[in-house]
Design goal:
Layout (H helix, E strand, L loop, with lengths): L11 H13 L22 E3 L2 E3 L26
Antiparallel strand pairs: 1-2
Length: 80
């Protein structure tokens, strides 16, 4: 798609801002609509669906100890 030509679309800053917005959402929908009881992030890790890489996850793969969104200097615990 044309989004591949937009570096901001897939930047770490955009991902972090979008995820923060999700975390900050009070679940209100407005317009008198009853809000949901629960909301879930789409996926915890990146995935491949029908041969297409999807990078929506907070981690790149199941055994990755470091989240894509971290504070400067953050070092995850090592399991070795």
């Amino acid at each position: 798609t044309d989004l591949k030509n937009c570096p901001e679309w897939s930047s770490a800053e955009t991902f972090q801002r979008f995820y923060k917005g999700f975390l900050d959402w009070d679940l209100e929908l407005g317009g008198g609509v009853r809000p949901p009881d629960h909301a879930f992030w789409f996926t915890m890790r990146d995935a491949v669906n029908f041969g297409v890489d999807e990078h929506f996850g907070l981690i790149t793969r199941c055994d990755e100890p470091k989240c894509k969104i971290t504070s400067p200097g953050f070092e995850p615990f090592t399991y070795e």
